[in-house]
Amino acid sequence: MAEVFLARRPGPDGFAKRVAVKRILPHLAKQPDFVAMFLDEARTAAALDHPHIVHIHDFGRDRDSHEGDAYYLAMEYVNGEDLAALWRRANELGAPLAPADVATILVAACEALHHAHEQGVVHRDVTPANLLVSYDGVVKLADFGIAKSQAAASRAQTTAGTLKGKIPYMSPEQARARSLDRRSDLFSLGVVAWELCTGRRLFRRKSEMEMLRAVQMCDVPPLRSVRPDLPPGLAVAIETALEPVVEDRWDSAAELAHALLAWLAAAGETPSKTRLAETMARLFGRDAAERRLAAERAPVETTTANTPLPAVEPRRSPLRPERWIPQIAMHLHLPPPRMPPLRLVGPLFALLLSAGGLLFGFHAQQRSHALTAGLGAAPPAAASQPLAPSLAPPSLAPPSLAPSPTPALKLVPHDLHLDAPPAGLSLPAPAQKHPTHARTHDRQRRKR
From the candidates 40, 125, 143, 185, which is the catalytic residue? Predict the structure, then answer.
């Protein structure tokens, strides 16, 4: 819905402050629904003032924009990472977050949610991407884009059957498009906590429909079945927030925070920003904050006040098709020809053999038809002549070769009938068949 830029807010006598500027996408700036949602976010977030919620510095409209009226929101810049980056980095290193670190993050998130809930605001989008952790160990809740206050809910109800939010972090009632209260945010926070403790995705499925069905059925494995070393007190606190029935969950985020603080006290720990900062240094390096600041400061320090800035074309949204389709057409490179994969060699070879067999059979059939036609066209007078004992007529035999000592057979047409044997050829008399004797012999053999 929006894009975020890193900006610098200037002031008198060289004062400057880095802020995050959130601007509605240009192709959505002309749609009243998205503009109204962006304005609701600005009003909702500006009314909240808490140490664990991203602060709003300014809100306005840029009428000189080349894209038309552009609404922007200047917010507090958090120099750190979101929980999604922490989750990925911990999995890469094979070292899941410590239970005390998870509890510290959850306590700060509960305090931020409780403050919003007391103002009549339901966040409805509690995800790892919206929970930020600075390199100093400070936790911030951000992005109230689809949050609903009581006034906004009475003015613009969500359309029936329309889901807003990320499916893997929805509550069962949110996945069924029902009315929500503060306990829906607690379920979403419980999903985030379950994934931080186990290093696995809770509702990850092959398709969105299967994922939505899993959320509606609330298919949640016990925490200790996935991570047996997790303390039972922490597991019970998180699993209570993941109850499928709304009435069985914690009544408020403050109750969940109290349960987590009680477990930390029993374990001899306290919510510590210093310990969380050490975890950030272990995951991303101790110089992560300096590297981030150096990368942000580099474009500003390489330009002086006396050097004019080069003319740069205004940034255009990558979501505009008319912007990026011509560039793709200009930089189109066809891939080089490649040999077919080895799995195709066998079928191609079999296909070639089949084609060769068909051609060979066709030619053999043509030759058979030609031979049959030649035999059928022989004169009938030749069939009545007696067979010659020699292989070929004397006139066709070569004069230099001696005749073969053994007489060779000669092909006789099938319909040739001889009334008498040829001269010089005696045939034995056919044997007389005695069917009666044969049957008697068969009976005697069966009796034996």
Answer: 125
